Amino acid sequence: MKVLLRADASVSVGSGHIMRCLTLAKALKQQGAVCDFICRPHQGHLIAWLSSQGVNVIVLPAPIDNEVDDARQCLNNLTTSYQLLVLDHYQLGQAYCQRMRERCDNILVIDDLANRQHDCDILLDQNLLPNGNERYQHLVPAHCIQLLGPRYALLRDEFYQRPSNSNGQPKHILVSFGGSDEQNLTTLAVNAIAQLKPEQVTADIVIGANNPWRAMLQQQVARLPNVQLHVQCNYMASLMYQARLMLGAGGATHWERCICGLPGLVVTVAENQQATTAYLDELGACVWLGQAAEMSAEFFAEQLCYYLSQPALLDEIGQLAKNLVPANAGTPLVIEQIMALAEGTC
């Protein structure tokens, strides 16, 4: 099976679309699929990094204004047909997919906005919302299979391999605000950790390769004992299992954190993260600290100090989070649906 994946990364969009598509592509390759990415070189793109992961990337020209032109450029750059198109892109919807069917037999759309029409055979939205089962009722064709909720979260293999000693180190914090961290929340977090007693607190700080504050963060972390900086790491699950508490953004990280049973203090860095984060907070599966513009180093330090002093509360939050993402679901369930569609059995 030949699969085409259309997604982009940038400083403003972040790396989440590319990362979850890469997770899906690697799982499909294990089933014998041949996967190609097709991307635009926005500022902060991950095209070179994708290539380093052994992925073939078709590079489109400079950005264009509408999805019809995007589809036209994509088709002009393809030299073969595909059994499946995977689309993970907020600016592309029904019009794009309708034109891409010229070269693609089936289409899987990954979305979480539910704000536009889609022409697809499978719709995947891994977010958890009170009205989750109704959001796409009038946005997809009648035949479309809807994979909704965190039981379909696209998680890498490492998250299904829980180590035996995975209770988290006391007073150990994990910080991650996504691949680009456009608001530079990581610096606030590092400053907050510096305010805590260093002999008691240890921390892992994770940033993306395109983080614009990378050089400054490297200097900051170098001055702090028991704090380590990780750049574009591929072992996030290991770091999560070692941590007692995570400070970070919403988005796909929610489900990584949940399957690890890691309590989270969450800052929403984009509008589309707010509804799910608020609902998880209501369920007791995380603590929503607020929006990025409201944060400060002093506030982070206060919150970290309080929750690290409440082990029973952290245990409760972690267990509630863990209950939301089945250990035997996620990516394997999505692959099952894709293979059934390709074989014409669904």
From TrEMBL:
Substrate binds at residues 156, 256. It comes from the Bacteria. The active site is at residue 17. GO terms for molecular function: glycosyltransferase activity. InterPro entries: PseG. The lineage of its organism: Bacteria, Pseudomonadati, Pseudomonadota, Gammaproteobacteria, Chromatiales. This is FlaR protein (FlaR).
